[in-house]
What we know:
The protein is mainly alpha-helical. The chain is 74% helix and 0% strand. Mean pLDDT is 79; it is low at 74-80. The chain is built from ten helices and no strands. It has helices spanning 9-31, 34-41, 45-49, 55-66, 70-79, 84-94, 100-115, 117-144, 153-171, 180-193. The longest helix has 28 residues, at 117-144.
Amino acid sequence: xxxxxxxTGAEARQRLLAAAAEVFVERGYAGTxxxxxxxxxxxSTGAIYSxxxxxxxxxxxxxxxxxxxxxxxxxxxxxxxxxVPDVVQHLxxxxxxxxxxxxxxxxxxxxxxxxxxxxxxxxxxELAAHLESVQSLVTAAQDEGSVDSSLPSxxxxxxxxxxxxxxxxxxxxxxxxxxxxxxxxxINRFIAAAAPGQ
Length: 198
């Protein structure tokens, strides 16, 4: 994409995604107008439709842009030789502290997916990609001997993704947070239980 209103394509996209995150969280998917997103971004609606075929695709890109980067970092960290249990422990300790806007975007995406087939398709594809990443991590851990190879990698990957998503969803609830030390104890116990010979 070229320049828009003196901005590079990347700058315009960043503005659109920041504005989209705000408006989707405030008004929900059904109540969000693309014209409001464009107004908040300081751009025209044409700037949206030159990049996205639909509001569903804009929501999906906003979710991807605001999702935590831990899953991508997991794979790169694993490739750099960081022990997989250490990476999982770090992820487990980080997730409860993610910004609430990320959690709200996920909730909004899941709710919109129930009503809009295009959102459901994009949302399912994104979750499938995350699940594949987590399963690659589990398989690598089994290959290196830090996770019991008799555990079904697909089921373990689904469990880990469910814990990650559940943690993000509960972040936005007004309940007392779990003590960090207690959370670390549970994560460490789980890692130890998944080790070979347990």
